[in-house]
Amino acid sequence: MSMRTQWSVLRRHSLMPALVLLQVALACAILCNVLFLVQQRLAPMLAPSGIAADELILIDQMASRQQPWTAAEVRRGEQVLRQVPGVRDASAAFGLPMVSGALMDMALQGGNGVKLGANGYLGEGLVKTLGLQLVAGRDFLPDEYRDFGMGGEGNSKWDPGAPQPVIITRALADQLFDDGHALGKVLLDPSDRQSHGYQVVGIVRHLLRNQLGLATDGRADNTILLARRIGSTSMLSFAVRVDPAMHDAVLKRVAAAIQREFGAKMREKLTARVSFYSERRAQAFESQRAALWLYAGVTLAVVIVTVIGIMGLTGFWVQKRTRQIGIRRALGARRADILRYFLAENVLIVSVGVMVGMVFAYLGNLLLMRHYELPHLPWVYLPVGALVMLILGQLAVLGPALRAAAVSPVVATRSV
To answer: What are phi and psi of 94, to 5 degrees?
Structure first.
């Protein structure tokens, strides 16, 4: 039977096809947006951290009571931590993976004119302490560091006639330079025309940013290291690299050393948070995992309702046309012809449904962007959702279509 004839039959009996079409359209719209939301949640969870995750202790929530800690006190704190048995290295820092209390947003412009935002990490010796893997260039030289103060004095200005040395990730190099060759090149700050920019002296393979909400769409590694050591500051954090074989014991020793060295000057009722990176990561993604379970439940419910709906409506449609099917069988139609007819008819209905559903998905995303500040739905999710619905539609109609193909030609004579 030709497609034109099938359309003619569907127009004469439009209620059932219209119900299936509407159900498919709504399911497609929901599925496209849910798939997009799942990807947004999964991207930070699956992104490589780039650090020695099993060896890293993070220390934050250290706020001075009155006077800021001096640069000398910060250096002494680093030395005390390095002397703790089981500690391999320690660095005072501003901005660390999974530490959201200290964020440095930076605007960068590369040689190809691309402008993007990145998170900045500051601290002396962070490449070694975090266990980063250099894929090009070098680490900062000792004389390249300048003091950086937070809430205190000692914020040394960079030489205004020279760009600041920085270390960036491989992902940033690929985004900011067409050939990815960023070593020795200068990055500009588009928000500061007076700045001489940043000169890339090293490139690391990965380094997860600490704004996890932006770690999507290839931006998880938008992170940059600056040659700044922590000077006089009222807010303090540390990264401590330890021997993984002394996991629990060294954690207690590090916590005790922090309390001895800085506890007397910390704000009342405030205790430094000392924990392993792996624990921080699990806590940071706890809400993400809960959201994924919710999306999985929504997706499963949509799939089940859609499949049951198509099966039920198509089964009713087959039952109403049992005599017509028997007549076609009596006129010589094979079972394969009947099966092919219902599958082709379902493809027509579902195809129109998914086209309408893609429009609904786009409009639904606009509403989500307006009320929940979600990013724009990439177009690639529309055909993906449509393809999933087409496959589900064919699987759902297969049972009723097989029952229709099994109708005997004798059925056509029962009402004669």
So the answer is: -125, 110
Q: DSSP string spanning 19-65?
A: HHHHHHHHHHHHHHHHHHHHHHHHHHHHS---S-GGGEEEEEEEEBS
Give 234's DSSP letter.
Answer: S
- Which residues neighbour 192 within 8 Å (Cβ) at sequence distance 6 or greater? none
Asked if residue 82 is part of any domain, the answer here is yes
Cβ atoms of residues 172 and 224 within 8 Å:
yes
Q: CA–CA separation, 240 vs 66, rounded Å?
A: 26
Q: Considering the entire predicted model, what is its pTM?
A: 0.78
Does some domain include residue 275? no
**Cα–Cα distance list, 404 to 8, 323, 326, 331, 390 (Å):** 20, 10, 9, 15, 20
Which secondary-structure segment (H or E) carries 7? helix 3-12
Q: Nearest to residue 52, comparing CAs of 142, 140, 126?
A: 126
Assigned token pair, 212: 């996890």
Cα distance between residue 140 and residue 127, in whole Å:
9
Question: In this predicted structure, which of 18-32, 69-83, 311-325, 353-367 has the lowest mean pLDDT?
Answer: 311-325
**What pLDDT, in 10s, does the model give residues 321-376?**
777 777 777 777 787 877 887 788 788 888 888 898 888 888 888 887 776 666 77
Tokens 């992170």 belong to which residue? 223
Specify whether 334 is located in the same domain as 253. Answer: no
Residue 416 has pLDDT above 50, yes or no: no
Q: Decide if pLDDT at 276 tops 90.
A: yes
The model's pLDDT over 177-192, given as tens digits with 9 standing for 90+, comes to: 988 889 999 999 888 7
* Number of domains observed in the structure of the chain: 2
The answer to whether residues 259 and 176 belong to one domain is yes
Are 114 and 237 members of one domain?
A: yes
Q: Is 186 helix (H, G, I), strand (E, B) or coil?
A: strand
